Amino acid sequence: MNELLRCAGVHHRYGALPVLTGIDLTVVPGARHALIGPNGAGKSTLLKLIAGAMRPSAGRIHYAGNDVTRHREGRRARAGIGRTFQHSTLFGSLTVRQNVALGLGAGRAGRRHREAIDALLASVGLQDLPEVPVATLSYSQCRRLEIAVALAARPRLLLLDEPAAGMSGEERARLVDLLRGLPPTVTVVFVEHDLDVVFQLATEVSVLHLGTILVTGSPDEVRRSPEVRDAYLGARTVEVSRAADA
Ligand SMILES: Nc1ncnc2c1ncn2[C@@H]1O[C@H](COP(=O)(O)OP(=O)(O)OP(=O)(O)O)[C@@H](O)[C@H]1O
């Protein structure tokens, strides 16, 4: 099967607390694959396991044809797994340009990478703010800059943890456009609570519930799944279906 990422029987526990109890997940190249589920379902934990920030208690993670289960985060990053975090990792005292330069591994000046930096800033709509200190950016601008920094490393697999959290409606629409505009060579796995964003952007949706994946399918399949309605979407499904039918 054509796949970029496969998690097979992945378990994770924090001390005595089992959080993931047998995750089987396949992500195809070019997908915008959403992970949804109730608070505490283990979505962020799964992203961290894929990134290599933690090791699973059991199971295997395959990426680009290799078993990377035991590979450290840096090695996975060099192999093309990039991510943004729920909490910002930007350097507030540096400028927008300097942050992207560091993401490119070009040192903070990044003189020889000017064009690449400009292109990355344009791709996230920050082309007018290269010399602005990050500390003065809005929350939404920071989130977009984080995506530019992650893209600077030219990931094949980009992991985004709640990219739309804390954004206004207009900012979310801009984010959806940005992520839709990424080339198909960048596969995206994202955790998101905002179901409008999920259903606008995702090509596949996996629903986590009680430590396992309840269902994976197209947005329509997930929206219509009775199990998913019962376990998670509930009344919100009806709202989303109405919005989609309108
Ligand atoms: N470092 C940690 N140590 C102990 N327990 C943790 C740790 N990180 C997460 N947990 C617990 O693991 C469970 C899953 O957390 P996780 O953040 O992966 O869920 P999530 O689905 O991303 O939730 P949310 O949607 O609220 O962000 C929760 O019960 C959480 O309290």
Explained architecture:
- Keywords: ATP-binding, Nucleotide-binding, Transport.
- This is Branched-chain amino acid transport system ATP-binding protein.
- It holds the Pfam family BCA_ABC_TP_C.
- InterPro entries: AAA+_ATPase, ABC_AA/LPS_Transport, ABC_transporter-like_ATP-bd, BCA_ABC_TP_C, P-loop_NTPase.
- One of its GO terms (cellular component) is plasma membrane.
- By secondary structure, the protein is α/β, with parallel strands linked by helices.
- It folds into 2 domains: 28-56 and 157-175 and 183-245, Rossmann fold (3-Layer(aba) Sandwich); 89-155.
- Helix content is 37%, strand content 24%.
- The protein has helices at residues 43-51, 73-78, 96-103, 114-123, 139-152, 169-180, 195-201, 219-224, 226-233, 235-245, and strands spanning 5-14, 17-27, 32-36, 58-63, 66-67, 81-83, 157-161, 187-191, 204-209, 212-217.
- The strands form 2 sheets. It has a 6-stranded mixed beta sheet with strand order 6-7-8-3-9-10, with helices on both faces. Strands 2-1-4-5 form a 4-stranded antiparallel beta sheet, covered by helices on one side.
- Helix 3 (96-103) packs parallel to helix 5 and helix 4 (114-123) crosses helix 5.
- It is globular and about 50 Å long.
- The two termini are 36 Å apart.
- Adenosine-5'-triphosphate binds next to strand 2 and helix 1.
